[in-house]
Amino acid sequence: MSDSLTVLIAAFLLLVVIGLPVAWSLLAGVLAWVLFTGKLMFLPMMAERIYQGMDSFVLMAIPLFILAGELVNEGKITDRLVHFANVLFGWMRGGLAQVNIGASILFSGITGVALGDIAALGRVFIPAMVKQGYSAAYAAAVTASSSIIGPMVPPSLVAVIYGSMTGISIGALMLATLLPGLVVGLAQMLLVGVQARRHDFPRVEMPRSPRILLNSAGNALVPLMIPVIILAGIMGGLMTPTEAGAVACGYALLVALVLYRSVRLPMLGRIFARSAVFSGQLLIIVGCGAAFSWVMGMENVPRMLGDAVSGWELGHFRTLLIFNLVLLVLGMVIDPTTVIILFGPLLSAAATQAGIDPVHFGVVAILNLNIGLLTPPLGVCLFAAERIAGCGLGALLRANLPFLLINIAALILLALLPGLSLWLPRQFGF
After folding, report:
1. Please, what is the average pLDDT of the chain?
2. Do residues 214 and 241 both lie within one domain?
3. Residue 302 pLDDT class (50, 70, 90 cuts)
4. For residues 61 and 286, is the Cβ–Cβ distance under 8 A?
5. Rounded to the nearest 5°, which phi and psi values hold at 205?
6. Based on the domain organization, do 413 and 277 belong to the same domain?
7. How many angstroms separate the first and last alpha carbons of the chain?
8. Which of 71, 74, 80, 377 has the smallest CB count inside 10 Å?
9. Are residues 4 and 120 both part of a single domain?
10. What is the pLDDT of residue 1?
């Protein structure tokens, strides 16, 4: 590795570790590289590269998906999903923990953001689980672990970013993440079932009948149409991901403003402002990451990585194993968006060169990086759940360990069985 490349990466990592926001750390790394190499003529091009990194029609889907999720959250539509999950899963031993995971699966089809899941459902389930006798740490562990299903089930913001960075079809990625997301949810439910028998967790006592199930499903159907609209529009060739996001926003606005009347016109300013801030936080990372990737390209990092993978002659499975370990470590210290922007194109190209299907590798990478949201020192989902539960980080880490292991087991299963990821895309001709 050249001295200039060492300066680029070291400056970025050092600034991230000391707490500078990721976007500015990326930009500072580029600036350090320019000053070290003396190539001051590239300074005027930095702003252009940042703008070009964000100036993508595909990336316009990000603020639209975020806005749709904010409208759903503010419109209290989640209450209907929680009741439906209660009817479906509450009869099991450990019912409220099962409902927590089931609601995350349903809710993830609307927001596609892990922290959105915790913000909307954590404040509902953590106090309710504690009231029913679960420890605060266990309630927080279930909530944090189930939140990583959000970026797997369409619409997934991470899939949009990964597809736009690597050139892989976003429609194929969204289809490919659907079954793996359900596999992760099922694995977590099986774990809760085992723990429930061991610790005699209670069921959720409530009336259940076919009529109640149908009524609950009918109430949940309206918000659950959002992912259906998005997937059907994209798969049917009627809409691009960005256009599907716009239609989903219009649908969510109509439901919250007119059908349920849970959002009033004066509230829209606050909803749009929150969506704009969150979108800006994501897109500035994308832009600064594009400038950083541009410099890595000038340092020939893609070619060096490709040559290294070819020279090692590791084959399909060993390459996948090593890349999984790399992504797990990166996910522990850097947020998924940044890792995808910086390393997604490099690792995807190298994986393809090693004979790994790029869509399958994308699914494995997305799940892998989101597991990092449950591990210190980054662990943003872990910290968000702890903030709601107030249980202490040590207790939460102990309660979360079985969930972390079951998520890694699901990751290994998905890595070894590419058909789980590729079956749906192949049915639609990808």
Report:
1. 82
2. yes
3. low
4. no
5. -90, 115
6. yes
7. 38
8. 377
9. no
10. 64
The Cα 32–Cα 51 span in angstroms is 20
Same domain, 124 and 21: no
Tell me the C-alpha distance between 312 and 139, whole Å: 45
Establish how many alpha carbons lie within 13 A of residue 89's alpha carbon, considering only the half-sphere containing its beta carbon.
24
- Give the count of domains, the chain: 2
Which pLDDT tens digit goes with each residue over 8-65? 888 888 887 787 887 888 888 889 998 888 888 888 888 888 888 888 777 787 788 7
pLDDT digits (tens, 9 = 90+) for 91-115: 777 777 888 888 787 776 665 566 6
Position 114 scores a pLDDT of 67
Question: Is residue 319 located within the same domain as residue 344?
Answer: yes
Pair 209, 228 in one domain: yes
Highest mean pLDDT: which range of 189-203, 284-298, 398-412? 398-412
Torsion of CA 369, 371, 377, 380, to 10 degrees: 90
- Same structural domain for residues 62 and 31? no
Residue 380, pLDDT above cutoff 70: yes
Q: How far is CA 213 from CA 223, 277, 399, in A?
A: 16, 39, 32
Averaged pLDDT, 181-188: 92
121 and 80 share one domain = yes
312-343 residue pLDDT tens:
666 677 888 888 888 888 888 777 888 888 88
